Amino acid sequence: MTTTTSTRPAFETARPxxxxxxxxxxxxxxxxxxxxxxxxxxxxxxxxxxGQPTIIRRAKATAYIMDHVEISIRPEELLCxxxxxxxxxxxxxxxxDPYWIMQEIDTIGTRPQDQFEFTAVDRxxxxxxxxxxxxxxxxxxxxxxxxxxEVKAAEDDLVIKLxxxxxxxxxxxxxxxxxxxxxxxxxxxxxxAKQAAHPDNDFYTAALIVFKAMxxxxxxxxxxxxxxxxxxxxxxxxxxxxxxxxxxxxxxTTAKPQSFYEALQLLWMxxxxxxxxxxxxxxxLGRMDQYLYPFYQASQQAGVPADFTxxxxxxFYLKTDDxxxxxxxxxxxxxAGFPTGYTVALGGLxxxxxxxxxxxxNKMLDLYQEIQLPQPNLSVRIxxxxxxxxxxxxxxxxxxxxxxxxxFNDEVCVPGFLSxxxxxxxxxxxxxxxxxxxxxxxxxxxxxxxxLFNLMRIMELAMQxxxxxxxxxxxxxxxxxxxxxxxxxxxxxAGSDIVDLGHREFAPIPFLSxxxxxxxxxxxxxxxxxARYNFSGVQGIGxxxxxxxxxxxxxxVFENHEMSxxxxxxxxxxxxxxxxxxxxxxxxxxxxxxxxxxxxxxxMECAKIFRHYALELGKYKNIxxxxxxxxxxxxxxxxxxxxDVGATPxxxxxxxxxxxxxxxxxxxxxxxxxxxxxKSVSKIDNTLAVNGSLxxxxxxxxxxxxxxxxxxxxxxxxxxxxxxxRHVQFNVQSRETLIDAQQHPENYAGLVVRVAGYSAxxxxxxxxxxxxxxxxxxxxx
Length: 781
Known about the structure:
This protein is an alpha/beta fold. It folds into 4 domains: 34-145, no CATH class; 146-172 and 443-696, Alpha-Beta Barrel (Anaerobic Ribonucleotide-triphosphate Reductase Large Chain); 184-255, no CATH class; 258-441 and 699-780, no CATH class. 50% of the residues lie in helices and 9% in strands. Strands 6-7-8-18-17-21 form a 6-stranded mixed beta sheet. Strands 3-12-14-15-16 form a 5-stranded mixed beta sheet. Strand 19 and strand 20 form a beta hairpin. The longest helix has 33 residues, at 474-506. It is globular, with a radius of gyration of 26 Å.
């Protein structure tokens, strides 16, 4: 890629000083507020398209939004495209589920987690206009009508929780390399030809509607930038920048990008159009350092100043923090702190099996060290080839304490995908979507977050079933748990398929589908099975607690004969009431080993249970012909799912949280240091967690101080790699700092911590999640 420009355009040297800090401050000046704009425009379009195919109606609604939404170019921005004029607004999608919004309409500003202002005027409009229109017509209505009594009973049993029933489907990475290499105009040309050849194919018609609207949307910004540039009250540098923004946006209506600046603009606008279409979480960004590197090189060779490249990439980072997702109060418990899922994977293998790191990989970590916000959610792919310099820079970035980047192990993730029939080239190109889910970018519709599966609730039900069996054995208990896992796996796959069908019938996404491999060739939306890879991911939650509990029951009841099985169940049902109950609880906590301390007998219980669950889930095919994949991560659902479980034999009180993360030890139970934690997790076959797993580790900040701290930490990460663990992430904040932030939040507005597969502002989290992070064991090396 080359450019014929020999001298730098004025706009690339116009800005006198960096404006990143100004833009960062501007993002957070106003309180988060509900925006009805998309909902009003979407509804207005739907009222005009009654009787037309759903995919056409969806496309026309997306186009109508792009043609009519209020747009702005905020002070100092170099990149165009915002979902709303007001930063960090919560956007409603009543076409998905109008009911939860109505239930929370008066409490959304004061609820425990992720509050939004909802003005009186907008609340009245919602009650009088949007709710009546969408009641009985939403995706939620369709899904509820399809839920079988068996699925409903499993939900009532608190074993399964179906996700994505009230929002557009995300957790996808579009084929950004393709649109950057081809440009919007090439897609319009291709879709026009496909539509002409297949006039009865609604997918081609719908996709073309949205791509043409994208061209008009670019032109709207070009016109706005040109108008703003005429304002003589603006500084000269800003008028020069706006003039170039106008020209660039007009060029990108048809032409492919040539420079790093143009590539970032098209990348961001593609992301925004995806948001307009589905208003979904985790439309992630893939391997940015790989597909943007040719543009970066071209701009370097053309003499673009490094300061300008830094500034425009910084603008891109900040724009990812402008998107916050509005969730129901129940959903916010599981995804607390606005994890929008602008996840990026740096480094990792290339198609030749070599480690692919470049100057842009390093620059992206350097820039994050300046920005230090929850998004983008950077991750680093690690394997034994990783250059020590890049590994050290990764460690230095983690040392900042924001929990970014997280680490993914190529030595596990690639074989996992190969086991699912993914080609070698595609497996080596995996990226991270959402929190910790792994996917094949631009080729997968994975429904990575379709359901949660509460393994601890299954154990509780199994123990109740066997309470009155006089001669129950440990083997019978264990087998009964496995049998119940099998029964509920069958049900959760059926429930997941109902949600999958709901998205097919009510929420096709033709624009995004056009940027997923094979959909244009097949003439099918991803929701109809058009993607190359079609997975569904169900998270098994509670493995560490289950292992601890099984081990304690085995020793207490069946080997030591300290009490009968029935007596133990009765104590659990009473939540360890009374002095004797509390003595038993302390006995269970302190006198029996716990997962995370390298006890092979105990750890293998965790490994065997997860293997059984993963293999059982993999027996089922979804309605798109793809496999169900197991995950082992909780996001922040370990707190609400813990609320669904009574007291357990690991000494946990009724309704207390489960182990955080997914494969992390129960809080405070890992006593032998971080290496012992790795050894415990390594006994699980991590290749089976194809949908993703999560390991949280917390370090004392003093541990990572100085060059010696970085050296020891880098060695620890190489041990993680060699032990074939899929994922790890870190909090590097002292307990004292976190407690002070909890007590004096006004002093810690910018404190970012790792929650689960994402980072968030500590003061944005409710007290239960803050307490969970504080209680996690603080390790040293």
